[in-house]
Predict the structure.
Amino acid sequence: MNDAQAWQVREGGISLSVRANPKASKEAILPGEGYLAVRLTAPPVDGAANKALVKLIAKAFSVAKRDVTIESGEAARMKRIFVAGDPQALAARAVSLYEPQA
């Protein structure tokens, strides 16, 4: 699997392909087929899952919530997320999320 499908380094940050799974029993970020699978405990009602997604991605990438933007897919499970910051550091973090250490 080519990691480039799950994220792309861009000027000023990194763009992520994310598949959100709301109403999960536990929050987690897991590798998927060309995306990061994000499990959220929040329901998909009134933007609660999107808010939880932004918060979880911000925490995982050690950035402020204001640096995480949903670019597309606000009302869909598949989303495109932009994380602003140092692209190389963010890409390194994406690799560690996609390929967790055993």
Summary: The chain has a mean pLDDT of 91. The chain is about 25% helix and 30% strand. The helical segments are 48-60, 87-98.
